[in-house]
Prior knowledge:
mainly alpha; two-stranded antiparallel sheet; Arc Repressor Mutant, subunit A; 8 helices; two-stranded antiparallel ribbon; 10% strand; Alpha-Beta Plaits
Amino acid sequence: MPGYFVIKELAKLIKKCCRKEGDWTARYGGAEYILVMFDVDEKQAYRICKHINDKINKHEFCFEGKLINLEAGIGFHVLNNEIMPAEQFIKAASRTLHTGGREENGDSGRNLEGLLQNYLLTQREKEVALLLLQGRSNDKIARDLFISISTVKKHIASIFDKAEVKSRSEFVSKS
């Protein structure tokens, strides 16, 4: 049963991402899992999701000599001393779904809103990022958004940090 094999292998990969005794993971349906981690902010949660996604995408699932391709979608939601029903939590986590950059929208292959959501950008960072992807200069971005060039540079530095890139060209190619 290849499906059962993949579910077991996936569970092992996710379990390895637990950081300490308090973290835990559980399967809640099909190949859907929840990983609960404590003392994690949104930036850390994003990086952990990306790490798990990368591990899954690099892992070779081989059953009876046949390679099984698996693409994961991983989302998260950070609770700040709040309680919510599991369904609401899962819905909130799905809004931050990280799929390793394979989002498609049917035309250019880019889903910019999904892409930008994955990086947890602020509204202003999203505006700057969209202009970056259009090839605008810092000066042009500043004029378009009525902000200073130093503010543009701060937003770009934050965007690059969240996207884990070091240059405009790397950011564009990752998009």
